């Protein structure tokens, strides 16, 4: 007993020292947020393991990235082998993993998307895409959704409206927002109270046309807004948006950082709508937790960009180590048919969330596609009035019970859980997460 007490005391002292160092030396980078007070020691599959022995089910796939689970054995083997042979190169040199990944990505996409630029982060890929669109069109104005998130670098941040706009001075000139087609909180309605997205879209572009100086270059949007609250525009919306772009000589950029590579039950979310973007950006899911991103476009657009002197390279552009990881991710996705698996598990997840909604009046809406789901908590089910406090309390209770959840809190909305388990999760793990969430909501509402 004495030895056990001594070990507990030593662990507690070590933990206190860790948090003292963290509080003293780390820059807090998530606005008003704080670091989760758990010291994560390891991760495997769908679970995180803390230094003090707790096992936590990860319903966010890390930063919505670890699409085939944490520390997937084939990814681990690839990193060991590739890092030992060739990890990094001068940006003007090429290796086989880079060319292989570019070719294989093109093979998963419809024509004419066949040219790839391999980078590291989603913000970086969106930066490159916007830069390319401006150069090719010779124009500079960019349109995006009013609840968008595209990154933290200059052009990407200027096209981001869900957070981070205040206090940093002027954004890049020529950035405009259009309203989000949110069926749960419609701002334009039909006679029966449903979202009138066509009228909303027309109105949005009337405002764009009124503000534009005649230099509309591109529209960049997510097929399913994630940080915006897991909002999925209705079928037909993207075809109409694409037409709005064509009428104005704009390029359509789709940001599939979180929806790409099988998560929604298809290889790409845009496939549902029969629309092919001019430029596609990928990140998060492509590296399965490693820093890998891509910009994909047509040979025609790439040639025009090249002819005009397109310049975008970074220290880690076309790195062989990350490209090798991307190739292994594709191997696993294809071999294990994880697009089909995401659709099957997504149906199980959706059914469970709807059962939770039926039991708890504080659940206002369930939405999403495949293994990217949203559950919105509200203070008043009749009016849909949101409650950030309720979302925070449920998040805390989930973690106490062994489930890590990610909550989106934006003005005018309730707390929206972004639920994105790995595509490799088991049915038992999905059921466990649903059971913990169900209990957490019940515990919080019973106590308030």
Summarize the topology.
Blueprint: H1 2-25, E1 40-44, E2 47-50, E3 55-58, H2 61-64, H3 73-85, H4 96-107, E4 113-119, H5 122-137, E5 141-145, H6 154-158, E6 175-178, H7 197-211, E7 216-221, H8 237-247, E8 251-255, E9 279-282, E10 293-298, H9 299-307, H10 320-335, H11 338-359, E11 363-369, E12 372-380, E13 385-386, H12 388-401, E14 403-404, E15 406-409, E16 415-419, H13 427-447
Parallel strand pairs: 3-14, 5-6, 5-7, 7-8, 8-9
Antiparallel strand pairs: 1-2, 2-3, 4-10, 9-10, 11-12, 12-13, 12-16, 15-16
Helix pairs in contact: 3-10, 4-10, 5-9, 7-8, 11-13, 12-13
Write a structural description.
There is one protein chain. The chain is an alpha/beta fold and about 450 residues long. The chain is built from 13 helices and 16 strands. It has helices spanning about 1-25, 60-65, 75-85, 95-105, 120-135, 155-160, 195-210, 235-245, 300-305, 320-335, 340-360, 390-400, 425-445; strands spanning about 40-45, 45-50, 55-60, 115-120, 140-145, 175-180, 215-220, 250-255, 280, 295-300, 365-370, 370-380, 385, 405, 405-410, 415-420. The strands form 3 sheets. Strands 4-10-9-8-7-5-6 form a 7-stranded mixed sheet, sandwiched between helices. Strands 11, 12, 13, 15 and 16 form a 5-stranded antiparallel sheet that branches. A 4-stranded mixed sheet has the order 1-2-3-14. A hairpin with a 4-residue loop joins strand 2 (about 45-50) and strand 3 (about 55-60).
């Amino acid at each position: 007993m004495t030895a056990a007490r001594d070990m507990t005391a030593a662990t507690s002292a070590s933990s206190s020292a860790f948090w003292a160092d963290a509080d003293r030396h780390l820059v807090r980078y998530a606005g008003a947020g704080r670091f989760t007070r758990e010291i994560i020691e390891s991760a495997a599959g769908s679970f995180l393991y803390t230094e003090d022995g707790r096992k936590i089910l990860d319903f966010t796939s890390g930063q919505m990235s670890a699409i085939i689970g944490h520390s997937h054995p084939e990814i681990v083997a690839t990193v060991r082998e590739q890092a030992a042979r060739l990890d990094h190169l001068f940006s003007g040199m090429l290796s086989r993993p880079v060319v292989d990944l570019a070719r294989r990505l093109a093979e998963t996409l419809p024509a004419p998307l066949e040219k790839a630029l391999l980078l590291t982060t989603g913000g970086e890929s969106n930066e490159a895409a916007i830069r390319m669109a401006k150069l090719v069109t010779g124009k500079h104005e960019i349109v995006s959704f009013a609840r968008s998130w595209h990154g933290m670098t200059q052009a990407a941040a200027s096209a981001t409206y869900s957070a981070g706009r205040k206090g940093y001075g002027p954004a890049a000139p020529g950035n405009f927002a259009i309203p989000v087609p949110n069926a749960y909180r419609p701002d334009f309605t039909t006679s029966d109270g449903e979202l009138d997205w066509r009228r909303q879209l027309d109105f949005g572009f009337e405002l764009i046309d009124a503000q534009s100086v005649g230099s509309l270059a591109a529209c960049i949007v997510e097929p399913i807004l994630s940080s915006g609250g897991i909002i999925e525009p209705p079928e037909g919306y993207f075809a109409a948006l694409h037409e709005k772009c064509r009428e104005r000589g704009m390029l359509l950029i789709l940001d599939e950082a979180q929806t790409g590579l099988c998560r929604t039950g298809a290889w790409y979310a845009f496939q549902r709508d029969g629309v092919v973007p001019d430029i596609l950006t990928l990140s998060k899911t492509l590296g399965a937790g490693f820093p890998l991103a891509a910009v994909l476009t047509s040979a025609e657009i790439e040639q025009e960009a090249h002819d005009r002197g397109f310049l975008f390279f970074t220290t880690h552009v076309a790195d062989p180590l990350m490209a090798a990881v991307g190739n292994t991710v594709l191997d696993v996705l294809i071999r294990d048919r994880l697009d089909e698996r995401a659709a099957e598990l997504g149906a199980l997840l959706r059914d469970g969330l709807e059962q939770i909604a039926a039991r708890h009046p504080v659940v206002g809406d369930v939405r999403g596609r495949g293994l990217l789901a949203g559950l919105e908590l509200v203070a008043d089910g009749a009016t849909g009035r949101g409650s950030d406090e309720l979302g925070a309390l449920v998040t805390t209770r989930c973690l106490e019970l062994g489930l890590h959840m990610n909550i989106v809190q934006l003005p005018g909305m309730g707390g929206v859980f972004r639920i994105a388990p790995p595509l490799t999760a088991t049915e038992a793990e999905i059921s466990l997460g649903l059971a913990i969430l169900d209990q957490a909501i019940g515990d919080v509402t019973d106590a308030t």
